[in-house]
Amino acid sequence: MSQNNDAILATIPSPCFVLEEQLLDRNLAIFDRVQKSAPIRVMLALKGFSLFHSFPQIRTTLKGASASSLWEARLAAEEFGTEVHVYSPAYRAEDLPEILPYASHLTFNSIGQWEQFRQQIAAHTPNKPSVGLRINPQYSPVKTALYNPCQPSTRLGVSAAHLGDTLPEGIDGFLSHNLCESDSFALEKTIANIEKLFGKFLPQLKWLNFGGGHLMTRKDYDVNHAIEVLNAFHHRHPHIQLLMEPGSAIAWETGFLIGKVLDLIPTDNLVNVMLDVSFTAHMPDCLEMPYKPAIRGAHEPEAGDTIYRMGGSSCLAGDFLGDYAFERELAIGDRIIFEDMMHYTMVKTSTFNGVVHPAIGRIDKDGKFALWREFAYEDYRNRLG
Ligand SMILES: Cc1ncc(COP(=O)(O)O)c(C=O)c1O
User: Fold this and answer.
1) Is 26 within a domain?
2) Residues 51 and 147 in one domain
3) Which of 219, 251, 283 is the last residue of a domain?
4) 28 within some domain
5) Is 132 in the pocket of ligand 1 (CB under 6 A)?
6) Cα(37)–Cα(346) distance, rounded to whole angstroms?
7) What is the per-residue DSSP string for 306-371?
8) β-strands 16-20, 105-108 pairing
9) Contact 113, 91 (CB under 8 A)
10) Nearest CA to ligand 1 atom 16
11) Per residue in 175-201, pLDDT tens?
């Protein structure tokens, strides 16, 4: 995260999501190195980050976008414009005719859905998508059930036991998504499990997509190890095109959410800081995962510190997070900067309670702020009728 100066911050409205283009470039450089050092094509998972104004910058490096619905597929085709890899847990029959012209790759979550739609795909000429199946590699390092696709009786992906002895005709590839903010050793274990459980099918595959969850842009990620692991797999199965579709890792630490202190409400042991941003409406992963985001200039409270609890702008009783301490006492009107708020925020926001939706903008490579979007009453109203 960069430390923007006060003059730039003063030009940003409140509240506002702010992408820092220089930081996005830094992440893209890592994926550029990976793609040049290992035989893998990297796609952007729109479910994690779909701020399409930044797609021209991202597509200088990434090879395409992955989508999990008709609307994401359309956004990928119209705004990203290269390969579109579509996977949905369950396709709606009425969506498929619209998805087909967008999809270069189409992955099914079950054999049943593949059988349901195979005739329709066969009839789609001239550009039939390459068809894949999501598999369950029966390994995930993710401890939080909400984010563990391989939990017992999972609804996501076909397990080896259910696949039988032969791959259904027409299947070109596999998608394995089982990681979340994971390291290269988790990728290595995933590959070991795929080879162990699905090894007999590998000779028939044209491509294998390792999904998302590869946090290659986190400082402690061993990129060289991942490159070794991918090259070793390629050496064993040179006919398989390797793919991955990270979301978080692309937008990791590339921007912030800036808000403002509206009120300060002291209680016996702490001060409630009433903000113009909401955890439930604007940063839902903080409550769902849960995790405590870093706030610029704040630290863990120590003995003697004034304890501040960050209160969201909705009426939800649990719309708060804490506790934090600051170098100096907070005052009404102070700006509060939540770090690393680009991934799984803007794609998940709501206008619950009619709370103001943060504007969206960027700090460009010259250090100047520009707005992309502000929201108005009509955005709230028009979702409902
Ligand atoms: C199928 C699939 N691919 C890719 C991703 C992106 O994962 P991440 O943002 O953790 O990299 C997800 C996230 O849920 C997913 O479900």
Assistant:
1) no
2) yes
3) 251
4) no
5) no
6) 32
7) PPEEEE-SSS-TT-EEEEEEESS---TT-EEEEES-STTSTTT---GGGPPPPEEEEE-TTS-EEE
8) unpaired
9) yes
10) 177
11) 999 999 999 999 999 999 999 999 999
